Amino acid sequence: MVPDALPALYHSRAGIVASGTATVEAALMGTPFVMVYRVSPLTYFMGKPRVKVPYFAMVNLIAEEEIVPELVQHKFTAENIVAEMSKLIPDGEPRTVMIERLAAVKTRLKEGSGGVHPADTAADIILKMIG
C-alpha cells in the first residue's frame, strides 16, 4: 500500500481495496471494504484452473468464509462497486455484520500469532490451506 493509503483507509467509512495484503490491513483496522481485482483476460483464463482456493481476498481465506464481497474480473464494474458500497457506508446490519466479522479475523490473527506479525500469521494460515 502507498504510505498515505493506510491513514486514509483507517479514517474512511468504507473502502475499495485491491486483492492482497491490503485486505488484511483493512481487516486489522476494522474498516469495511469491497475487494476488487482484475487481470488481463488471457492471464485470468490461464490462471483460473490453477487457483485452488475458494476466495481471492486474503481476509476471506483467513476467515474460511466470504466476509467481504469479491468483485473479480467481469464482476468488477462501477455498478457493482456502487451497489456493494451502498450496503457498507450507511449504518445498518450489513455494515455491522462486516465489522464484527473483520474483528473476528483480527482476533484470529492475534491469537495465532505468538508475537509474530499478523501478516505472517495470515500467510501461515493461507499456506496451510493450499499446501
Describe it:
- By secondary structure, the chain is mostly helical.
- The chain has one domain (about 5-130).
- Helix content is about 55%, strand content about 10%.
- It contains 7 helices and 3 strands; from the N terminus they run αβαβααβααα.
- It has helices spanning about 5-10, 20-30, 40-45, 60-65, 80-90, 95-110, 120-130; strands at about 15-20, 35, 70.
- A 3-stranded parallel beta sheet has the order 1-2-3, sandwiched between helices.
- Strand 1, helix 2 and strand 2 form a beta-alpha-beta unit.
- The longest helix has 19 residues, at about 95-110.
- The protein starts with a helix and ends with a helix.
- The mean pLDDT is about 85.
Attribute tags:
mainly alpha; 3-stranded parallel beta sheet; 9% strand; 7 helices; single chain
Number of strands: 3
Largest sheet: 3 strands, parallel
- Provide the succession of SSEs: HEHEHHEHHH
Q: Based on helices, strands and strand pairing, what is the structural class?
A: mainly alpha
Oligomeric description of these chains: single chain
The spatial strand order of the largest sheet comes to 1-2-3
Strand content bin? 5-15%
What best-fitting shape do the alpha-carbon axes yield?
globular
User: How far do the termini sit from each other?
Assistant: 27 Å
The number of helical runs is 7
Mean pLDDT across all amino acids: 86
Residue stretches low in confidence (pLDDT < 50, at least 5 long) are none
Work out the helicity level.
Answer: 40-55%
What is the total number of structural domains? 1
What is Rg? 15 Å
